[in-house]
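Q: Sequence in, structure out?
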Amino acid sequence: MWPLIVLLLHVSAVCSDSHSLRYYDTVVSAPGSGLPEFSSVGYVDDREIVNYNSESGRYRPKVQWMEKMGEGYWEEETQITKGNEASFRHNVRTAMERFNQSGGLHIVQRMFGCELRDDGGVTGYSQFGYDGREFIALDTQTWTYVPTMAQAQITTQRWNSPEEQVVEIWKNYLENICIEYLLKHVENGREDLERRVRPQVKVSGQEKGDTVKLHCQVYGFHPRAVDVKWMNKEDEVHSYETTHVLPNPDGTYQIRVSAEVTPKDGDRYSCYVDHDSLEKPQYIVWEPEKSSVWVIAVVVAVVVVVALLGIGGFFFYRRRKAGYKTTGKPDERRLLPPSLWTEESHLSSVITSLCVII
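A: Exactly. Output:
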C-alpha cells in the first residue's frame, strides 16, 4: 500500500506560496498484518495534521495548532470516520470478489484532496487503489469516474449515473468544502506552514577510475520547494540523478542530487541550491580530497626532518662538550677546532637543504 501513498505525496509538488489538503484512507482485508485494519490520515502541505485508526477509534490532531478546531470538530469527524471504516471493510470484500480472491492480505485505499495554487487556481483529485495499483480515478476535467481496471467498470457505471449524484457530491466537496477547510487550517497553522528554514548542504565525491560520482545532500529546509543541481562553472551538469523531496520528522525536508562526471583540467564543480529562505542561490564547491599517499609522504618527510634535527643536536652537543671550553665571548663558534666547525657547517647545510626540498 505504501508505494502508492508515497507516489501521490510527491507527484503533486507544493509551491512555496500554494497549499494543499490531502487525505488517505486505508483498509486491509485481514488482521495480523502489523497494520491497523483501517486508518485515515490527513495532511496539509505534506505535514500530517490528523490521524484515525481502528485501534484508537478516535480522530486525533497530530500538530498542536489543529487543536484550535475545538471539541465539536473532533467528535463529528470521529463519527464520520467510523462510518467510513464500516464502508471500507465492505469495499475490500467486494473488491476481492471482483478479483476472484477468497483469502490473503489485500488493501483498498482512497486518496483525495485539493490544492489552492499561488495564482488563485483550485485543483482536486479523488481516486481509489487496490493492492497498490490505481483502481478508479475521478477526471476533474470531464467530472466523470474512469476505471483503470476491468474489475472497476461496474462501480464507475453506477457512480457516473445522474441518479447516484456521486460526481456532483465530490465536485462540490473538492471545489468548495475542501478549500474552505484548507484555508482554515492554513490560517491556524500559518506560523508553522510558512516558516522559512535555511537548508544545510553537504557535498562529497566517490572516485571510480577516471570518473567521479558527486553527491549533494540538502536537508533541514522549509518550505518544501527547492531547486538543486550540479554545475560545472556556469554550465549545468545534465546527467544527474535526484531523489524525491522527502519529509523529515521535524517537518523539514531533504533531497539528494547526484551526478557522474569525468573531471578535466579547469573543471570546477559546485552544487547549486536555491530556496525561499536564501537571499540568493548558494554554490557549494566540491574540492577533490587530497591523495592519502601524498599525506603519508608528507608525514614521513616531517618525521625524517625531526629525527635529523635531533641527531644533529645530539652530535653537536657531544662534540662541543668534548672539544672545547667556553670563554664567555659572544662568538663561541670561533673556538671550535676547524674539523668540528666544518662538520657542523656541513650538517647545517644538509638540514637546510632537506627543509627546502620539503
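The radius of gyration is 35 Å.
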